[in-house]
Amino acid sequence: MDMTLRWFGSKHDSVTLDQIKQIPGVTGVVSSLHDIPVGEAWKFEDILKLKKEVEDSGLKLIGIESVNIHEDIKIGLPSREQYIENYKVSLENLGKADVHMVCYNFMPIFDWTRTDLAMVLEDGSTALAYDENIIKDIKPETMFERMEKESGGFVLPGWEPNRRDEIMGLFEKYKGVTAEKLMQNLKYFLDAIMPVCEKYQIKMAIHPDDPAWSVFGLPRIVTSEKALEEIASLNESIYNGFTLCSGSLGSNLKNNLPEIIRNPKISKKIHFAHLRNMKFETDGVFHESSHLSSDGNFDMYEIVKALEDINFDGVVRPDHGRMIWGEQARPGYGLYDRALGVAYLNGLWEAIRKNKK
Ligand SMILES: [Mn+2]
Predict the structure, then answer these.
(1) Per-residue pLDDT for 13 more than 80?
(2) How many domains does the chain have?
(3) CATH number assigned to the domain comprising residue 148
(4) Could you tell me the residue range of the domain that residue 129 belongs to?
(5) Which of 56, 90, 268, 335 sees the fewest Cβ atoms within 10 Å?
(6) Could you tell me if 266 and 229 are in contact, meaning their C-beta atoms sit under 8 angstroms apart?
(7) Does the keyword Iron apply (predicted)?
(8) Is 103 among the residues known to form the active site?
């Protein structure tokens, strides 16, 4: 198992590789080429440059989070052919650079959605929060205004003001794309890329939708145990796998995380784990908490135990952390709380392993 941290690259991250290197037990990072527009093929030299930068600090580039999927692939437009070809080139170049795990998501238009990027908690720390009551009646255009007013100076990924026109156009294009159609388009994509993944041993790890239900009337398909079973069966290759994100899947309290991890149809395909805890006020209203079991609704011991029980040997990272100790960083991705998360998760792992009979 590789304990990692997500790193956005020296240009985009307030956290440095030297800092990450000093967190006990962290051997590498997952990162991405954030300046390459979605849909373009990744060049071998660019990947090598990122890899060298990471390795020069004494860490490993253990995987990519993420190689994003162009909307035309998700919508199923004829133009997807070119974008799939480009994706295959990116995978081939990653394989040649000896990078073998790629996280991606298949959410229409938006990545993870939150209604507050800096909710103040009782101890003065701030955290990302979500309130379904705000989202459920809101139109996307109103959401833009809200984001500009209430994001505390931060811009939620995907909600950059300059995307407003593009996004309204995308909503048009998604008309008629049902959940079934989206699932078919995922299969089409997986069937096309799996031969490249097999050749270069690249484990694809689809990230669950966050939150794990439809928002703004757009379909979402990576939301439940049943959905993960279906996706596993879309293409039988072991390289068609999952990112087990406790916070995303766990946003729906009906999802039993340890049970999902132990599901034999899913467990062997878990290549990447994102571990975080969340505190729920009610169904659909939650904020992200510290990683500690007692601070949220998830039993982190049971989640780690389930991963240990299935002999999970993939990549793991603490997920979003709170902002503590006055840190200024990308929402969810400060150094301090994620480092505390690593220390706690490592403690759980050590105890569970030593107690194994
Ligand atoms: Mn995640």
Answers:
(1) yes
(2) 1
(3) 3.20.20.150
(4) 2-355
(5) 56
(6) yes
(7) yes
(8) no
